[in-house]
Specification:
- InterPro entries: EF-4, EFG_III/V, EFG_V-like, EFTu-like_2, G_TR_CS, LepA_C_sf, LepA_CTD, LepA_IV.
- Belongs to the TRAFAC class translation factor GTPase superfamily. Classic translation factor GTPase family. LepA subfamily.
- It is a single chain.
- It contains 13 helices and 33 strands.
- By secondary structure, it is of the alpha+beta class.
- The strands form seven sheets. It has an eight-stranded antiparallel β-sheet with strand order 11-10-16-7-8-15-12-13. Strands 2-3-1-4-5-6 form a six-stranded mixed β-sheet, sandwiched between helices.
- The radius of gyration is 27 Å and the shape is globular.
- About 1% of the residues have low confidence.
- Bound molecules: guanosine-5'-triphosphate.
- Guanosine-5'-triphosphate binds next to helix 1.
Length: 598
């Protein structure tokens, strides 16, 4: 009977349409937090999320709602990120839910990731409840958006909730619709335990803490459980729910979403996607897990202090627990020493991981420019997967190179279609289709090299459409391209960590831009430093960092002690993100310079 009163659901939307604010309002309306505890974007617990105003991690909470029918319902709500880089989090959250609230901005309408997330929800057989948010905005046009949801998505929006999360409008109706429209979880209390792990985190005292959705059976402290994929066995020490702070429970049963701890020390024993069952009474089959996520870009992560290599490995292992899409393997660079080649879902993801390593684990890092994975076919018939440009075989040994392509879907008002097409063409895009969604919006699709889209395509797309275009993409296989590697030499020495791969058409220009850029970034020494770009043994461009003449430390001889301290501090911090390569000091910025030459 308790099961009949449970509703498991998620909230999905295009970025910034207001998911997190809706979640806040639900917590408030169900009195799950006191007014004093209430702060905006309560579920965005990471400092980084608050500062950037984005959701990076999903979060699962339990709240209690007294409905108009007089009954009290238990809601398990999973907030999810909206940015394309974090779609992995969305798909995992959806596997734990039975319904999804689809939030659409009343002024922006349906956007590329609105569609992408709806498809994910439909794949997971979720009931979808449309909500049109931000009706308080002067530019809001809820009726038009309602029509758009019906036309573009094909979803019945006649009873869509009209809401303003900001003003608290529409929230009571939303809560009632959740009770009426979303199904209660199915699942057999008597059946052998099957619980899906969909997230995890690490606690120094309790070990690995798993977020689970129990599909069948019951689990309680003292139970001996087995992880069906890893085969590991543990005794459960604690179960509970987040509401939103951790609350211990006597048991979790079929239909519940909550956490489980079992003094798990080895993070490999309990990966998201695995199924937990009982040792004594095991289920015959694990639940369907998740598609493993392939990283889109790779970059090298190196501690500025080589002695911190093991600390970096520990930190990456702990982060991986909290972010199953993170991948890393050891690599060595002549210039940078020992580090890790690390895979990310996109540049925002890379940024976030780097910042979390620095803040949560106190690491000082050098990150090399991100690169996609190339396939190099050698003359002796081998295929080499190249995640690190410096590992591309010699020109003479290569027969051909393939690079990953994506299918890019862009939604844009018709007056900007020209600008979008011009940009896509410039980024080596191949036109696929163009459809009118209604009389003013167009859905344009292109095949494009992933390397072009991942770097600054999104920013350029936004700036050339005054922010109106939205983008979604998925991998679409490998294609042969006329690619070559550019090496960078500092003071005559090749710096492997600065090598990059470009299309022949852009090689000359990129070589020129990068040598000019490095000249600005690399600090002067008391001798001249030549900066060269080379293809094989051929130098294609060169700049020179002049020797300095005057004493640069004289700047510090300033009377104001405050200013002096600040300057020193700035220099100290600058130094931390610097690596000596031979006789040259190379700052972090130099490794990213190649991104700024696209
Ligand atoms: P991500 O977590 O980054 O995916 O974004 P989100 O979809 O969770 O959006 P969020 O709740 O962070 O809201 C985005 C912005 O819209 C914030 O500045 C909110 O204050 C604002 N916002 C949310 N709801 C409303 C609303 O009903 N009206 C108005 N005017 N602004 C709103």
């Amino acid at each position: 009977a308790r099961q009949q009163h449970i509703r498991n659901f998620s909230i999905v939307a295009h970025i910034d349409h207001g998911k997190s604010t809706i979640a806040d309002r639900i917590l408030e309306a169900t009195h799950s937090v006191t007014e004093r505890e209430m702060q905006n974007q309560l579920l965005d617990t990471m400092d980084l999320e608050r500062e950037r105003g984005i959701t990076i991690k999903m979060n699962a909470v339990e709240v209690h709602y007294k409905a108009e029918d007089g009954e009290t319902y238990i809601f398990h709500l999973v907030d999810t990120p909206g940015h394309v880089d974090f779609s992995y989090e969305v798909s995992r959250a959806l596997a734990a839910a039975d319904g999804a609230i689809l939030v659409v901005d009343a002024a922006q309408g349906v956007e590329a990731q609105t569609l992408a997330n709806v498809y994910l929800a439909l794949e997971n057989d979720l009931e979808i409840l449309p909500l049109i948010n931000k009706i308080d905005l002067p530019a809001a046009d809820p009726e038009k958006v309602r029509q758009e949801i019906e036309d573009v998505i094909g979803l019945d929006a006649s009873s869509a909730v009209l809401a303003s999360a900001k003003m608290g409008i529409g929230i009571p109706e939303l809560l009632e619709q959740i009770v009426q429209k979303f199904p209660a979880p199915e699942g057999d209390l008597e059946a052998p335990l099957q619980a899906l792990i969909f997230d995890s985190s690490y606690d120094a005292y309790k070990g690995v803490i798993l977020t689970i959705r129990v599909k069948n059976g019951i689990v309680k402290p003292g139970d001996k459980v087995r992880f069906m994929h890893s085969g590991a066995e543990y005794e459960v020490t604690e179960v509970g729910v987040h509401s939103p702070y951790s609350v211990k429970r006597d048991y979790l049963m079929a239909g519940d979403v909550g956490y489980l701890a079992a003094s798990i020390k080895n993070i490999r024993d309990a990966r998201p996607g695995d199924t937990i069952t009982m040792v004594n009474k095991p289920a015959t089959e694990p639940l369907a897990g998740y598609k493993p996520m392939t990283p889109m870009v790779y970059s090298g992560l190196y501690p500025t202090d080589n002695a911190k290599y093991n600390d970096l490995r520990d930190a990456l292992e702990k982060l991986q627990l909290n972010d199953a899409s993170l991948e890393f393997t050891p690599e060595t660079s002549q210039a940078l020493g020992f580090g890790f080649r690390t895979g990310f879902l996109g540049l925002l993801h890379m940024d976030v991981i780097q910042e979390r390593l620095e803040r949560e684990f106190d690491m000082d890092l050098i990150t090399t420019a991100p690169s996609v994975t190339y396939h190099a076919f050698t003359t002796d018939g081998q295929m080499v997967e190249v995640e690190n440009p410096s590992e591309l075989p010699d020109v003479g040994a290569i027969k051909s190179i393939e690079e990953p392509y994506v299918h890019a879907q862009i939604m844009v008002p018709k007056e900007y279609v020209g600008a979008v097409m011009e940009l896509a063409q410039r980024k080596r895009g191949e036109f696929d289709t163009m459809d009118y969604l209604d009389d003013h919006r167009v859905y344009v699709k292109y095949y494009m090299p992933l390397s072009e889209i991942i770097f600054d395509f999104f920013d350029k797309l936004k700036s050339s459409t005054r922010g109106y275009a939205s983008l979604d993409y998925e991998l679409a296989g490998y294609r042969q391209s006329d690619l070559m590697k550019i090496d960078i030499l500092l003071n005559g020495e090749k710096v492997d960590a600065l090598s990059f791969i470009v299309h022949r058409d852009f090689a000359q220009e990129r070589g020129r831009l990068i040598t000019a850029k490095l000249k600005e970034i690399i600090p002067r020494r008391n001798f001249e430093i030549p900066v060269q770009a080379a293809i094989g043994s051929k130098i294609i461009s060169r700049s020179t960092i002049k020797a300095y003449r005057k004493d640069v430390t004289s700047k510090i001889h300033t009377g104001d002690p405050d200013r002096r301290a600040k300057l020193l501090d700035k220099q100290k911090r600058g130094k931390a993100r610097m690596k000596s390569v031979g006789t040259v000091d190379v700052p972090q910025e130099a490794f990213m310079a190649v991104l700024k030459t696209g």
